Amino acid sequence: MDSREFKTTIEQIPVPKEKVFSAISKGINKEDNRGKAKKKKVLVGAATAAALLGITVSSGFVNPTMNKVLANTPLIGGIFQEFNDSTGVELAHQDAVTELNQSLTKNGVTVKLTSAYFDGSVVSITGFVDDDVEKGVNEKGEVSFDLNFEHYKGDSDPWLRGKSNNIKKVENGYNFQWKMDYPYKTFKENSTLPITIHNINGIKGEWKFDIPIQQEKNRKLVINQEQGYPEDGVKIHIKEILTAKASSSLIYETVEKYKDDDIFIEKAIDNRGKVYRFENPTFLEESKQEDGYHRTIRREMDKLNSDIKSLTFYPSLSVANPKVQQLLNRKSFTLQSTRFNLGLQVNDVTQKDGELVIDYHLTGLPENLSKDKLETINHNLAYLIWLVDKDYLTRIDPENPWPPKNRGIPFNKVKMIDKATAHFQSTFDLDGEERIENFKLENTMMLVDFSNLVPAKELEPFTVEIPGESK
Question: How far is CA 460 from CA 27, 202, 228, in A?
C-alpha cells in the first residue's frame, strides 16, 4: 500500500461517503441513462451514513426503469443484480458481457470464472468457488483471494490498486465479483488478461486463467478548460470525457503548490439538473514542474447524457500538513501544526504495566463542534498519533509510510475525557503486535498528523461547456 492509498484509507474513516452517494445516485439517475477516493477528509457521523446506506440497499425500492431493464436482461445479468452493479445489468441488457466457462480445481477447491466486461475504465470478472474453500483458515462465510494479474507479483500489481471484491453465499459455494480500475493511460480495445490465484483462504494452489476483455472504442469529448484558485495555490484542468456503453470517464489534471494537497471533485451537474457521481481515481501521470505538482487523473462517472450543453463541477481541497514530532523525554510539551491553527498540548506521559498513556488537549478546533464531528475526531486520533524509535525515523519510506517492524506503534486506543475542552487520552500497547523493541521514553519520538483533523475546503464550483462528440 503506497502513501496515497494509506492516507486515503485513514482519512476516509469512518464513512465511505463517495460509495454511499454513488450507490444512491446510480439508482436515482438510472432513468436518465456505474476508494490505498483519494485524500477525502470526512467530518460527518458514521451512524447517519450507515443508516442511509442501509435504507437505500435494504428497503427493496427499485427504480421503475431498472425493473424494465431487468425484465429483459439475459440470465448472466442476475449476478450483477445480486451485487447491485447497475453497469453490469445495463451491459448484460445490451448483450455486451462476455460469458465465460473457465474452471480449474486445485487442492480440492474448484474456481469457475463466469463472465467479464470492460466498460469505460472498469474491468469486471465474476465467478464461483465451491464449498471446499471452507476447509481453509478463514471463518465460515469469509472468502479471500491472494491473486495477481498480468504476471505481476505481490503489491506491485497495478490492477490491485483500485480493486474491489464482492462475495455472496449460494448453494454449494460462493459467487464473487472482482472489479478493477483499468490501470493504464491508453486503452486496448481487445486483449487478454492473465490471472493467477495463489491461494484462497490460505489454501495454496496456482489457479491460472486467461480472460478476454474487450470493448468498443470510447467516444471522446475534448473539453480543455481550466479553473484556477490562486488563493489556495491550485488549478484544475478538465481535459476530456470518454463514454463507453454504460459509463463515462472524466480525465483531468490538477496542479498544486504543495505536494500532498489534493483536489477532489465531489460531483458534477449538467445544465438539465442531472447529478453525476465519480468513482475512485486512477493516477495516469505525476510530475513536479515549475508551477507546482501535476497529476493527471481518470475517474469513472455515470454515463454522460449525449445532448447536454454544460457541466458544473463541485471540487474540494484537502490540505496536507507535514507530521510534527517531539521526543518523549519530557512529561509535558506543545506541538503546533505548520499550516493550520491547530495544536496538541500534552499534559502528561505515563508508562505503566506495558502501556504508555498520553494525556492531551487539542487546541484551535472550531467552536461548538457537533457530537458527530467530535466522535469522528475521537475515532481518527487512533491512527494519527504514532510512536517511533528515533533512530529509525529516516527508514520510513515517504512513498510507503509505515514504521519499520518492531520500531514503531502506529495505533492507539483513544478515550475522550471532556468534549467541551477537547481533552483526550491515547493509550499505546507496548507489548502488542506493533511494538518498539527495548522501549525507552528518551529514545521514542511522538509523531502527529494534523491534516486529518481538518475538513476539506469546498472550492467555488465552475462550469465548462460541452462540445459535440468527436472520435
Answer: 28, 50, 10
- Strands (DSSP E) contained in 171-306 are 173-181, 190-200, 203-214, 219-229, 234-243, 247-256, 262-270, 275-276, 278-289, 292-302
Q: Do domains 97-214 and 219-320+457-465 have the same CATH topology?
A: yes
Cell of 440: 525507552
In order along the chain (471 residues), what is the average pLDDT of each group of 10 residues? 41 38 36 37 36 31 37 63 93 93 95 95 95 91 94 92 92 95 89 96 95 89 96 96 95 94 95 94 94 96 93 95 93 93 96 95 88 88 94 82 89 93 95 93 95 88 84 46
Residues whose CB falls within 8 Å of the CB of residue 162, separated by 6 or more in sequence, listed in order: 180, 181, 183, 280, 282
Contact 144, 163 (CB under 8 A): no
CB atoms inside a 10 Å sphere around CB 423 = 16
- Can you give the length of the chain in residues? 471
Question: Cell triple for residue 367?
Answer: 467552536
Q: Under a CB-based contact definition with an 8 Å cutoff, are residues 434 and 409 in contact?
A: yes
Q: Which of 341, 351, 343 is nearest to 324 (CA)?
A: 343
* CATH H superfamily, domain 97-214: bacillus anthracis domain (2.60.40.1630)
Domain assignments of the chain as residue spans, ordered by start:
97-214, 219-320+457-465, 324-453
